[in-house]
Amino acid sequence: MKDTADSVIPPQPRDYAGFNWTGFSTLYIKEIRRFWKVGMQTVLAPVVTTLLYMMVFVVAVRGASPPIHGTPFSAFVAPGLIMMTIVNNAFANSSSSLLQAKMMGLTPDFLTPPLSALEQVLAFSLGAATRGVIVGTVTALTIWALPFTQLNVVHPWAVIYFSVVASLLMGLVGIATGLWAEKFDHLAAITNFLIMPMTFLSGTFYLVDRLPEPFRTASHYNPFFYLIDGFRYGFIGQAEGDLRIGVALTGVLAVLLFGWSWRVFVTGWRLRT
Fold first, then answer.
1. pLDDT of 7 over the 50 cut
2. pLDDT per residue as tens digits for the range 22-52
3. pTM here?
4. 99 confidence band (pLDDT: 50, 70, 90)
5. pLDDT tens across 140-171, in order?
6. N or C: which end of the chain has fewer CB within 10 A?
């Protein structure tokens, strides 16, 4: 006689090729819900901050800032501000998530289940990338709706590629920082003394070719320059640097950081105390 208990057991998600899709998707969704629950802080606040930058750099200097290579100043600045928002939010998501988990003793929540290092890194990095892309998209739509801003997409592939790679790259940087940091002051130090200066000095508001030496040459070794330059190219159709170098450099950096993060999760550095 067939056991009636079998008939009430719901079908379970299936995993393939040794990859725990159930565990990965659970951790990924948890990362999404984590920032979505405080959307006023994680989504709306960055948009408001970007609008304030637009007001200061576009409205306040209207008429005093001539077009840059034939591009209106507002159209030149807007992509840089959008990329800055993407970078900051992707970094904040993974770094704060891991640091909070360590400080509150919640690391067993994702270390104890049968999740591999690959699945954990993918969940944290894709969660950060999702926040970066969402905030960047909302920011872009808001800027596009402004009456004093001209924002058009010329090369969609560049907009998609550089926004996604920037989100993944900074999500992985956030993983490294979250594992290294012991308190939120450490996250603030990385943001204020590393990420913010590298972003501002990479052509967010100006052409880096106008910088004096050696800052002009040094800017071309800054990966943020290629992220902003490639992303801006997608909107205005002009680039300062070589797009081939930008695509290759940012892609290689993302792969290297992913490999390093995977290795760290394998060894449990700063995770298992």
1. no
2. 999 999 999 999 999 998 999 999 999 998 8
3. 0.89
4. very high
5. 999 998 887 878 899 999 999 999 999 999 99
6. N
The position carrying tokens 């001539």 is 66
Peptide bond into 214 cis (omega under 30): yes
CB 90 within 8 A of CB 164: no
Q: Return the residue matching tokens 């972003």.
A: 199
Residue 94 in tokens: 């993974």
Q: In the chain, where are the structural domains located? A: 34-267
